[in-house]
Amino acid sequence: MRSPWFLRVTAGSEAGAVAREVDWAATPLGVPGTWPTALRVTVETCFATRFPVLVAWGPELTMIYNDGYRSILGADKHPGAMGSPVAEVWKEIWDDLVPLVDEVMVHGRPTWSEDTLLMMHRSGYDEEAYFTWSYSPIRDADDQVRGLLDIATETTEQVVERRRMALVGRLSAVLGAAHGDVAEVGRQAVAVLTGAPDVAAADVHLPGPDGRVALVASTGPSATTPAAADVVERVLRTGVAEERGRTVVHPLSTNGDGAPCGVLVLAAGDRRPWDDGYREFFRLVAAAVGTAASGTLRHLREVGHLREVSDTLQAAIVPGGSTLPGVVARYLPATGDLAVGGDWYDVVELGPGRRALVVGDCVGHGLDAAARMGQLRAAGRALLLEDRSPAAVLEGLDRFARTLPGAESTTVFCGVVDEVEHTLTYAVAGHLPPVLARVDGRTELLSGGRGTVLGFAGRPREEAVERLDDDDLLVVYTDGLIERRAESLRYGLDRLLAAVAAQPTGARTGVVADDLLRRLAPHGAEDDVALVVYRAGSVADPTAPVDDRGAAVAAD
Q: Are residues 361 and 395 located together in one domain of the fold?
């Protein structure tokens, strides 16, 4: 006969109905009418709350639980768990639970576990699950611990969601700083996804030069199963994601810029159910990779356009080829940057045996700096053609710079070579000192004629005059040739002096210029470089080539 108190406390719930059908006499607990008061009170509390509660009583920790706890049992363990031993029902995680059970049953102390991983087999597969729970002792009338009360809540969804969103955030951060091409974006994405618990495998496919799709990055074990391989081409063509089992083939969107630029294949792990949450997570991963790939493509197109513009502008600004004897010039843009910059050079024919050499450097980079540079170069050439002295040219540029926003602080070297008088007359506005390698083997920095940068001169400019012998070598340059980050300028000047001193006597100026660039900027320069090399007493070589930018003034 069923106990009236048991019928009362189990009424109105599904788990209670299951409990009423259990043959309790066949369990270590016996019929409910014989249960001790402590167990009755705890069972009544269990069925009176909607919070997940498990009561485990006696040496075998026989289970009684409510509707809230039923969901924790998954699809397979209910209703058989009612009236069964905990160790039997949760045999796959029993080793994890034993220390906590002993803490309660042996030592009488409650436990607390928060967002703890338990690998359960409750719905037909090994499942990653997280819980926050507390075990508390249940004592009988003699104050002896006879059972435990488990108040628990499953936090799997929250833990997994936080983990997935953290991965998407990390992926976006890494790809946001990615440089290079779309293939590099794919490789960096795969590097982030490798080892992620929710991504069993990931592949990035991109179209090659021949138009065929090729695998460019993979986490290792391929996500592109034979069943998915034939889908990749179609997804790239249609831009519509397709699902094959627990694998999704996503297009890498170009945000309306055209057809997808690639395909991302993602395979789900087998320890979480394949549900809408998993699908949404994969969609966010694909969106992060697609956004980065799309941004990279737009950047490459924009850089290509700007490079075309800048190359055209630079070619228009720098002087073309010349037949002036003994002079050669080179322009080297900063590594990885657009060709256009604020560095310039000019060589101006002033009459028989006389020519001017000018090298300048505007503050900044890009089209604005290049525009200012072009105006300053034109103004300097106009002043030189009026037969102004180097000091007078700089004074005229001072006045002009004060009317041209952004031109202040420009550095300029202006020198006039007289082949008849064998002299170099020069003035310097804050520019680095040129190097003069004399035919007798001495190499020195020319320190005369110095003054402040353009726009700030408070007194007349000074000039210096140097005697030149045949085969003396003059090197004028901008700071990109010698400056290095976190290094004193003195080291760069010493390298330049040594490189100029190492040039063979009588070496052609084109050979000297190219060798200096190879020695001092073997992998390109951190800043633009303008370089002018002059050999005193040289004769013209009309067959000497100009460089591929048309930047050579002349070759001796």
A: yes
Distance of CA 308 to the CA centre of its chain: 26
Q: Is 56 a member of any domain?
A: yes
Please name the residue that has the structure tokens 């998407």: 168
Could you tell me if 146 and 221 lie in one domain? no
The count of domains in the chain is: 3
pLDDT tens across 381-415, in order? Answer: 999 999 999 999 999 999 999 999 888 889 999 99
Location of structure tokens 């006597």: 505
DSSP for 105-161 reads: HTT-----EEEEEEEEESSSSEEEEEEEEEEEEEE-TTS-EEEEEEEEEE-HHHHHH
Nearest CA to 249 out of 287, 211, 223 is that of 223
Q: Considering only CA atoms, which of 106, 298, 285 is closest in space to residue 202?
A: 285
Domain boundary, last residue among 96, 126, 154: 154
Looking at the fold, whether 103 and 167 belong to one and the same domain comes out as no
Task: Say whether pLDDT at 150 is over 50.
Answer: yes
Query: Do the domain assignments include residue 504?
Result: yes
Neighbours of 440 (CB within 10 A): 9
- With beta carbons less than 8 A apart as the criterion, state whether 471 and 537 touch: yes
**Gyration radius (Cα) of the chain, Å:** 41
pTM value? 0.60
Whether 224 is in a domain gets the answer yes
What per-residue confidence (pLDDT) applies to 227?
A: 56
Residue 379 lies in a domain: yes
What are the residues whose beta carbons fall under 8 Å from the beta carbon of 269, sequence distance 6 or more?
Answer: 197, 198, 199, 200
Going across the sheet that includes 62-65, the strands are: 62-65, 53-57, 145-154, 126-139, 113-121
How distant, in Å, are the alpha carbons of 54, 62, 293, 305, 469 from that of 26? 20, 12, 66, 84, 118
Domain span at 214: 159-301
pLDDT digits (tens, 9 = 90+) for 12-47: 999 999 999 999 999 999 999 999 999 999 999 999
3-state secondary structure of 81: coil
